[in-house]
Amino acid sequence: MYNEIRQDLRYRSPVNKLNLTFMSNLPKTAFVPVLIIPSNTTDIDFYKNALGAIELRRWSNDDGSIHVAELVIDGAMFHLHEENVTKGSFSPGIYNGVTTDIGLMVADVDSVMKKAIAAGAKQLNPATDYDYGYRQGDISDPFGHRWTIEMVI
Questions:
Q1: For residue 6, which phi and psi values (nearest 5 degrees)?
Q2: Separation CA 106–CA 142 (nearest Å)
Q3: Rounded to an integer, what distance in angstroms lies between the CA atom of residue 68 and that of residue 137?
């Protein structure tokens, strides 16, 4: 089934002016994290509502669930990809833990955390000022990914 999906991806992802503009302005090298989400996921509005993400494009499976979604937060691209056990890609909920923490540098930690929590995030650690010059707070998104919302103070 995956090969059928892969062969048909170009027909399921509409190219729009926004993603063409974004893609043509990518730097030569960019760090683009891929967050693994559970199979059969159809709703990724948390990233839009909580973090202001813009969905550039999406590839869907035959059942309408997300195979891959490409998003951007204020110029920083990331992907959501359905888990694939045969490739060793698991969503955090499988093992009740994470192997990475996504740092999101923002202008106002408190407002971003408040918005994220209202959109469904779980607060892990409240926003706190640290002696190394950062204000940081930790949340877990609805799929179990851990985010450190941070700013330089």
A1: -60, -40
A2: 20
A3: 28
Read off the DSSP letter of residue 133.
Answer: S
Contacts of residue 138, Cβ cutoff 8 Å, sequence gap at least 6 = 101, 123, 124, 125, 146, 147, 148, 149
Contact between 105 and 150 under an 8 Å Cβ cutoff? The reply is yes
Q: Name the strands in the sheet holding 101-105, side by side, starting at the edge strand that comes first in the sequence.
A: 101-105, 146-152, 134-140, 122-129
Q: How confident is the model at residue 30 (pLDDT cuts 50, 70, 90)?
A: confident
pTM metric for this prediction: 0.77
Question: What does the alpha-carbon distance between residue 68 and residue 91 come to, in Å, rounded to a whole number?
Answer: 13
61: Cβ–Cβ under 8 A, 6 or more apart, which residues? 1, 5, 67, 82
Q: pLDDT digits over 43-60, tens only?
A: 999 999 999 999 999 999
Please provide the DSSP assignment of 38-62 as one string.
-TT----HHHHHHH--EEEEEEE-T
pLDDT per position as a tens digit, 59-113: 999 999 999 999 999 999 999 999 998 888 999 988 888 888 999 999 999 999 9
pLDDT of residue 20: 53
